[in-house]
Amino acid sequence: GGRRHAALKELVADKAIKGFTAKTKVDCRLVPEECDVTTALSLAENITQAPMNAIDEFEAFARMMEVDGQTPETIAKTFGATVAAVKGRLRYGLIHPDIRAAARAKVITLDTMKAFAEHPSQEAQREVFEALTKDGGYLQAYTVRQALKSRGVQVSDDIGAFVREDYEARGGAVAADLLEEHSVLEDAALVETILLEKLGAAAEEARIKLGFAWADAMVRYDYATMADYGRVYPGPIEPDEAAQKRIDEITAELEKLQFEMEDEGLEDGAYNALYERVDALEEEARDLQEAYSAEDLARSGVIASWSGGQVTLHVGLVRPEDTVKKEGARGSSASPTGEEAPDAGEITYPTSLVEDLKTERAMALGAAMALHPEATLDLTLFKLVSDVLASGMSVTQAIKIDARKEYRSHAKMDEIDETSLEQVAAAHEALDLSWLDDARAPADQFAAFRALEAGEKAKLVAYATASTTQSCFARDRQRDSLMHAFEIEIMPDIRAHWTPNAALFNRFKKAWLLKILGEDLGLAQEAVTLASSSKKEIVAFCDKLFAEPFATLTDAQRAAVAAWCPPMMQTAGVACDEAEPAAETPEPDSEVAQAA
């Protein structure tokens, strides 16, 4: 009764009105809190008599469901709204109170607040909100949505729907929303594991069906990475008698279908059905008249990826090493029988880990650039000038000089080594930002910027450019000679900016960890001893080893620990033909091999 109370106060203040004083008693009707129409009464009055704050409306709808037991349908009927409109409001009614308070205070926009509804867990919302606002920067809805993507997958997303049954069967945590379609599968790593398993199964099924040599899976088909792959195609073959008979049948049916499709009176549904049948028959006819050669099948494979909400197969791919061996280039190897024997202990990195290591390497490169302002300034200015004045392709795609900070995506961002983050933060603290004042006109800010010393400008440019580094691995001298040479100069050893820790080791197989300890680090005895331990214990051992090398290590072991990282993470400072030959694989009866 806020307005009635205000009216009574005005009556008291008006001395010409008789019968109203500050002590006048007015009858009031108290609606019990447990009454199931309490919220509806309050909300209806606010909606029909005065515009209601959007956030209040969100909260009221949500409370009607939680406290009063209403449904979106009954709420919509009560207030003459559509069910879709009520559902939209309900999503925002469960946003963390701190975030709603920020929207009320206009610290963030309403659109930004709505973006937090992408995840039903208020704890996840709060963590993302605090992380994105700790530096006091302007918060955008897009940034919020991107950050929340690493916190899980909505059950209504194509991937969520694809893996949900297996995810729940494995006990994966689900953050439940008031509305089922907005619930979230919280364990993003488990979602990706199941997705890769399903993609791998689809690739293996295709491999068996088509006769390829290998099958693999990746969440997203990385065209940049796959550019080094070759591809084989089926060639024409002479069909046998049975195949020729079927081809003749298909040809006759295609002619009939073509005639039917020329009927202008056909409805769209019927026409589309005929079109799909024609596609299927033409594909069948091609399969009967084309085939891969035995040689191509022996060196090619199939990769399954997730694209457009479904499994997509990329067939006939040839790995770079298989292409080299076929051409007889240096580095090819074969067994005395002429057949290659697969290395059972070979470490192969899953796609999710590959993508995250790319991110970590990009962060390390950014730290190195921030610590070498003069060189980075030269690089930045050279790229800007050459991209504008030179003809042809850009000199490098490795950095983005477009005044936008690169968003870092990582499945385990809270657990990775923070060395590069700390180095970049220290570089930021050292910046002279006296010129950066939003209260001043741009021209005044520019004048103050121009007055800075050259060294201060170099630091600013280096920091800005360092913030644009792209997810990457070691550069190929042939594909990007500029960044290949630049990385060798400023980051000869990535370990100055990044250290392997439990976040990495937890994603390795137990056999890989033992192999790394025994072969790469020279800790053969430790590998044998740890072979009977759990993976958790081996991860803890490796984490401590790299955090602070043990005093009992020999000089050689200490040097190996100080230098080790996944091969593709290190700066490509040594050409392939100059590198030392790899250590020979231990004989099967060796202690290390048995341990692995």
Automatic annotation (TrEMBL):
Domain of life: Bacteria
Annotated segments matching region Disordered: 323-347, 576-596
Single Gene Ontology BP annotation: chromosome segregation
UniProt name for this protein: ParB/RepB/Spo0J family partition protein
Positions of the ParB/Spo0J HTH domain: 52-136
Gene Ontology CC terms: chromosome
Keywords from the named record: Coiled coil
Residue stretches in coiled coil: 240-298
Acidic residues compositional bias, start-end: 577-590
UniProt xrefs under InterPro entries: Chromosome_partition/occlusion (IPR050336), HTH_ParB/Spo0J (IPR041468)
